[in-house]
Amino acid sequence: MMIRVLFKFAKLPSDAVVIDTTSNSGDYKDLSPFVLSAPPAKRFENLWQFSKVYKKHIMSIDGYPDASWYKWRDWGYSQDKAYRYPMGKGAIPEYSLWDDKRLSYIEARKKIYAPIYAENVFQTSAYEKLCQLYTECSDQATDLILLDYDAYDHLMLGMTLIDVINNPNKKMGHAFVLLMMLTDMLEVCLKR
Questions:
Q1: Residues ≥6 apart with Cβ < 8 Å to 47
Q2: Which of 68, 77, 96, 99 could be joined to 108 by an S-S link, Cβ 3.0–4.6 Å?
Q3: Is 189 strand, coil or helix?
Q4: Where are the alpha helices (DSSP H) in the chain?
Q5: By the 8 A CB rule, do 153 and 6 touch?
Q6: How far apart are CA 80 and CA 98, in angstroms?
Q7: d(CA 173, CA 74)
C-alpha cells in the first residue's frame, strides 16, 4: 500500500482510492484550510496568510510590523471567507510573524503551517474518517491518493517528506501535512 499526494487535476491511477482534500470535496471538505477553523482565526487559510508581513507594513526603525499590520491581521482572522492572496497574487512577504518572532518561509511552515493545521484538523470528523480509510487501504493493500492544489508527486521526484517541508522552491499544501500525520512523520519533519 502506498499513500501519495498529487495535484488536484493530475492523471490518476484507476486502482487507487482517491480523496479530494479541497474545499469542494463533500465529506472531506473540512480538511481544507479554506473551511477548517483555527482559533483565533475563523479559517486556517487566513491564520496562515495573515501571519505574513509585507514591506508596506514594516517599520524602518526595527523591521517589525506597524500598527496597520495588526489591524489588517485581526481583520483577516475575523473573516469567514478564506483569502489565499490577501495582498494580491504574486505578492512576496518579507517574513511571517508568530509569537513576536520573525520567521522565514521554511521556519513558518514548521512553526505555523504544519503544526497548527495538524492540531486543528486532528479534531475534525473528516480527519477521523480519513484515518479509518487509511487503515482500510493498508489492510487491503490499496493505494490512497490525496488531492490538493498545492501538491506534486514528491515520490516521483525522489523526495522525502523532509525534503518537501524544507524546499523553498515548491509549495507545500495541506495534503502533505495530512500525509505526514497519517504516516507518523509530522514530528520528524518539523524538527529537521
A1: 38, 40, 41, 77, 112, 116
A2: 96
A3: helix
A4: 44-49, 67-78, 105-108, 114-121, 125-139, 161-165, 174-182, 186-191
A5: yes
A6: 21
A7: 23
Cis peptide before 86 (omega within 30 of 0): no
Would you kindly state where each structural domain of the chain is located, as residue ranges?
1-36+124-192, 38-103
The helix (H) or strand (E) run that includes residue 10 is none
Distance, in Å, from the CA atom of 192 to the CA atom of 180, rounded to the nearest integer, reads: 13
For 72-116, write each residue's pLDDT tens digit.
999 999 999 999 999 999 999 999 999 999 999 999 999 999 999
Write out the three cell numbers for 1.
500500500
Phi, psi angle pair for 133, to nearest 5°: -65, -40
- List the chain residues with pLDDT less than 70: none
Cα torsion through 36, 37, 41, 46, rounded to 10: 0
Please state whether beta strands 3-7 and 52-53 pair in parallel, antiparallel, or not at all (unpaired).
unpaired
Rounded CA separation 50/42 (Å)? 12
Spatial separation of the C-alpha atoms in residues 36 and 46, rounded to whole Å: 10
Residue with cell 480527519: 127
